[in-house]
Amino acid sequence: CNVPFSRQAFPLPSLPRKQPTVLVVCGPAQNGAIGLVCARHLRIFDYEPTIFYPKRSPDPLYRDFTTQCEKMDIPFLSYLPTEVQLINDAYNAVVDAVLGAEAEAGEGREPCAAILATLKHVRIPIVSLDVPSGWDVEAGSSGGISPDVLVSLSAPKQCARCFLGRQHFVAGRFLPYDVQKKFELNPPDYPGTECVVALRAPR
């Protein structure tokens, strides 16, 4: 089902605001658009996101997301450094919004293949949105990246069973009851007004 982009803010509890720099890496399809919205939310919450979005979608909605980020003075990188240490030194976390559930369609294509080759070697925490890039949505990792944090959108996908990182969140409070019933979902309880809930405590 389609996920309302406006709900995709999520916590970075391991990243104190005294070290607020975040690199948001966006692919050309839906998961990349979610990454753009994520960057906007991070900016609202006083983080300092930078976006790498090398293949911009012609979709009018995605273009609007890009414009919103530009109007908020979020910088866009013209290239992703291949020297991984430059990324480690400049940022305190990476948001992986490259492929998501579109992994099978785009994993081997440029610029996604080069991006994944770089992200596999970074040493700062990686937060993947919905499905870690390079993973099969059902079977799990097949040589993709190894994120520290996974944020499942709507509900965890089958591949989340293979996730071995430190924290797993789900953002699905917005799902209507009839959708939950149709897909036999068993959503967790969301405390207070929270839009995300932790499925795995920090390790």
Might you state the CATH topology name? Rossmann fold
Strand content bin: 15-25%
CATH class identity: Alpha Beta
Helicity level: 25-40%
Q: Report Rg.
A: 16 Å
Mean pLDDT: 82
Regarding quaternary structure, what we see is single chain
With helices defined by DSSP (H or I, 4 residues minimum), what is the helix count? 6
Description:
The chain is of the alpha/beta class. It has a single domain (17-199), classed as Rossmann fold. The protein is 26% helix and 20% strand. It has six helices and ten strands, in the order E-H-E-H-E-H-E-H-H-E-E-E-E-E-H-E. It has helices at residues 30-44, 60-71, 84-90, 103-106, 112-119, 177-182, and strands at residues 21-26, 48-52, 76-77, 93-97, 126-129, 135-136, 140-141, 149-153, 167-171, 197-200. The strands form two sheets. It has an eight-stranded mixed beta sheet with strand order 3-2-1-4-5-8-9-10, sandwiched between helices. Helix 1 packs parallel to helix 2 (60-71). The chain is globular, with a radius of gyration of 16 Å. 38% of the residues are buried.
Structure summary:
With 203 residues, the protein is α/β, with parallel strands linked by helices.
Keywords:
203 residues; alpha/beta; Rossmann fold; 6 helices; 10 strands; 20% strand; globular; disordered N terminus; YjeF_N_dom; NAD(P)HX epimerase activity
Question: What layout of secondary structure does this protein have?
Answer:
Layout: E1 21-26, H1 30-44, E2 48-52, H2 60-71, E3 76-77, H3 84-90, E4 93-97, H4 103-106, H5 112-119, E5 126-129, E6 135-136, E7 140-141, E8 149-153, E9 167-171, H6 177-182, E10 197-200
Parallel strand pairs: 1-2, 1-4, 2-3, 4-5, 5-8, 8-9
Antiparallel strand pairs: 6-7, 9-10
Helix pairs in contact: 1-2
InterPro entries: YjeF_N_dom, YjeF_N_dom_sf, YJEFN_prot_NAXE-like
GO molecular function, one term: NAD(P)HX epimerase activity
Organism: Scopus umbretta
